[in-house]
Amino acid sequence: MYKKILAGLGGAIALNLLHETIRKNFDNVPEVNKMGEEALNKVLDKVDMQITNHDQLYAATLAGDVISNGIYYATTATTGFSITSGVVAGLGAVMLPEKMGLNDEPVAETTQKKVMTVGYYLFGAIVTKLIYDQLNKS
Length: 138
What we know:
With 138 residues, this protein is mainly alpha-helical. The protein contains six helices and no strands.
């Protein structure tokens, strides 16, 4: 079980490193972080809380993203369905925000952003599977 968790966290970290590197260096790319920040504050509003400091909001969102994606990848991408796992997560990231009352523009404003978002999640799933396979060899 711990191998799946380590692999899932590794894939989630790889996904976030890829996203952040591209986001900080290129224009017209997905900004998954903005969607996560909006979602976190929306949840916090329900309990009459809000994170107003941008750095704290970013850090809390990033931590939640790594943990949730790590759990998702640990349970789905360590099997033979790692590619499917990544594509499904990416499609969910593109298609669900609007249905959840979130602004989907950061990930779905253009076809390029949609394709890249799915690609990020696919990348995370593939990295998860590679890490998991390496851990099982040891």
